[in-house]
Known about the structure:
Blueprint: H1 5-12, H2 18-34, H3 39-46, H4 50-59, H5 65-77, H6 82-89, H7 99-117, H8 120-132, E1 136-140, H9 145-158, E2 164-167, H10 172-176, E3 184-188, H11 195-206, E4 210-215, E5 228-231, H12 244-260, H13 262-278
Parallel strand pairs: 1-2, 1-3, 3-4, 4-5
Amino acid sequence: xxxxxxxxxxxxxxxxxxxxxxxxxxxxxxxxxxxxxxxxxxxxxxxxxxxxxxxxxxxxxxxxxxxxxxxxxxxxxxxxxxxxxxxxxxxxxxxxxxxxxxxxxxxxxxxxxxxxxxxxxxxxxxxxxxxxxxxxxxxxxxxxxxxxxxxxxxxxxxxxxxxxxxxxxxxxxxxxxxxxxxxxxxxxxxxxxxxxxxxxxxxxxxxxxxxxxxxxxxxxxxxxxxxxxxxxxxxxxxxxxxxxxxxxxxxxxxxxxxxxxxxxxxxxxxxxxxxxxxxxxxx
Length: 283
């Protein structure tokens, strides 16, 4: 399967039927709009039957229409500006009283897709890598900073707090120069990928630092510099980066790490509970 769906459509164009060429013409001219269309909507716009649209996806080599749409979304999501994403999302069945249901359904689908893209073996390898590292650095810029903060908070509870360092945007390279072989850099980035994050990963790899990334697909530029990659789907239903799926992946990773360090975690929580109780931290 060709990674770029637009190039795939162009390469197969002259072998398609007349109706299928009509669909291709519409997609090539309107692929950003098509990314949010149902098979019925595309059939109406292309003036073909809905079954023809389904057969068209299969003729291109996809398992069905949903896989074709996902490939189109992957093709455009790293290139869309926030304004373009906003314009598309407001016309993508997200209006009216059912809009909140559509957004939540999209989050559910993102999690389902994410489950298929990851496996316990990789999670275990990453957990082992973090446990044996000299120090853990965590980098997440822009909206990914929320995820970096979350991971840093819980990893710091599991390990000694001085063992884990969150890299701040204004001090990225100031912190990177402190990395040494044996340290691990955990990077989190999604479309549109922060250029500074990619430059940081290149620096880390050039200096023999192990990189673990959390990103959206195997086509992500983070993969080139990563020893291990975890994937989380951020299908673009709105201009907002939905962090539901990547948060779920982090929950899995944090849980796996805590299981490996069960005794240490229990002892630390026992101390914390005594302090929290003594100083009335919680009601």
